[in-house]
Amino acid sequence: MGYQKSGDAEIDVVRQELENYLMTTQNHILVQNSKVHNYQFSLEKLRAAAKKGREFEEFKQDRVKDVNMETGQMIMAIRNLYGRCCSTTKTKMPRFESGFSGNYFKLEKCLTFICERIVDLNEVVVAFKEEEDAANALPPIPSSRNRGLNSGGGVGKNSGTLRPEGSAFLDR
């Protein structure tokens, strides 16, 4: 009985030490799990911030590409219009072939010339319409004097009338 009592007391002491050890180990595991969770949370925040930063950087790069593309398209359009204006005018204008895109002073000169050319052409159209209106306002010339003329060379759409000089271009 004495051995059993001393064995039971020894078992109780070892059991108490085991419980204390398990409690200490579980607390240590909980503390470590809490730290791991905090680190994972911080890592997720950093990943989200990095993702936002990459997306913003991509957005800026896309915007820069778009602006560069639009600028290039505008410069090409200006060059095209300038070339067309130069080819249809008798005024000798300088060609801006090299270094055209970086020199905004040259672009401004080109746009000014294009604007002036458009204004000139618009004035020609207005004058042509005024002449057309004036020609259409004139009474037709009787055809009795002009028998034998074919339908070209100044004869209007109506075979019995002759249009004034220069109005043959108005028949469409």
Characterise the protein shown here.
This protein is mostly helical and 172 residues long. It has one domain. It contains two helices and two strands, in the order ααββ. It has a two-stranded antiparallel sheet with strand order 1-2. The N and C termini lie far apart (134 Å). 3% of the residues are buried. The C terminus is likely disordered.
Features:
2 helices; disordered C terminus; mainly alpha; 70% helix; rod-shaped; two-stranded antiparallel ribbon; 172 residues
- Radius of gyration (CA) equals 47 Å
From the N-terminal CA to the C-terminal CA, the straight-line distance is: 134 Å
Alpha-beta classification: mainly alpha
Query: Into which percent range does the helicity of residues fall?
Result: 55-70%
Number of domains: 1
Largest sheet: 2 strands, antiparallel
User: Given the structure, what is the number of helices?
Assistant: 2
User: Uncertain regions: pLDDT < 50 for 5+ in a row?
Assistant: 150-172
* Biggest sheet strand line-up: 1-2
Number of strands: 2
Report mean pLDDT, rounded to a whole number.
81
The H-and-E topology, N to C, reads as HHEE
Strand fraction = under 5%
Overall shape: rod-shaped
Summarize it.
The chain is an all-alpha fold and 172 residues long.
